[in-house]
Amino acid sequence: MATVLATSCVPDRPHAADTTTIASVRTCRAHGREVRTRLRAGQLRVHLPPCYDQNPTGRFPLLILIHGAGADDTQWDDLGLFTTADRLMSVGESPPFVIATPRFGDVSSEFEATDLIDSVLPWIEGHLRVTHDAGHRSIGGISRGGVAALEAAARERFAAVGGHSAAVPTDTTRLTSGLASSRPRVWLDVGLDDPLKERVIVLARALDHARVITTLVTSPGGHNRAYWRRHLATYLDFYTANWWTG
């Protein structure tokens, strides 16, 4: 049985409004297509929603997902990310959105967060029709990538951030302070058999004390793809919440 703890319910600070038109498509049928490019620190894989080309003037919400240490961008594909997202969009359970999965090598989470802010996000906003307001972009990651996502959200505005079995550092002071300032919705989940469980719980408590809107979920499983694959649809529900317009 899963344990869910929804902590502080402090209203989020309003995000700056985007002056562009968000694509007002209720469903996206068929399958999306991919765009790949090489950036400063590695490759970037982008999954465009099936109706991206049908809406040449509309802009789409953005979801950035980061792989864990020892893996690459194919980790999210292996979990079923793109097929699950296409399915949710096709039946109207989520709005059409763009997914970006960068590929990093053997680097630190701090390097990943910096490259995301300085290189990945500017490239996406400069080359793709995504919304530029923080209210329509989310970020998340697995293990080391989960910490990178949290660090990026502590320095740049995102509507939501997720750390899935995040390799939380022993000292969470700086991370907690940054998230308390930027104030995204935070999702933390970890398997009951994951050796990182206690550190994730410590971070959740620190964020609760700092009055950051945080959801902590613990459920059976370890630090592996079977666990993350089982919860993938729930992750997407969290990231895309409040993205419907019109």
What is the rounded distance between the termini? 37 Å
Tell me how many strands there are. Answer: 9
Radius of gyration, whole Å: 17 Å
- Quick one: overall form? globular
Tag the structure with descriptive keywords.
246 residues, alpha/beta, Rossmann fold, 9-stranded mixed beta sheet, 9 strands, 20% strand
Descriptive overview:
The chain has one domain: Rossmann fold (3-Layer(aba) Sandwich). 46% of the residues are buried. α4 packs across α5. The N terminus is likely disordered. The protein is built from 8 helices and 9 strands. Helices cover 34% and strands 20% of the residues. The chain has a 9-stranded mixed beta sheet, with helices on both faces. The chain is of the alpha/beta class.
Describe the secondary-structure layout:
Layout: E1 3-6, E2 33-38, E3 43-48, E4 62-66, H1 74-78, H2 81-90, E5 98-102, H3 109-127, E6 137-142, H4 144-155, E7 160-164, H5 173-182, E8 185-191, H6 197-209, E9 214-219, H7 225-230, H8 232-240
Parallel strand pairs: 4-5, 4-6, 6-7, 7-8, 8-9
Antiparallel strand pairs: 1-9, 2-3, 3-5
Helix pairs in contact: 3-4, 4-5
Summarize the structure in short.
The protein is an alpha/beta fold and about 250 residues long. The protein contains 8 helices and 9 strands.
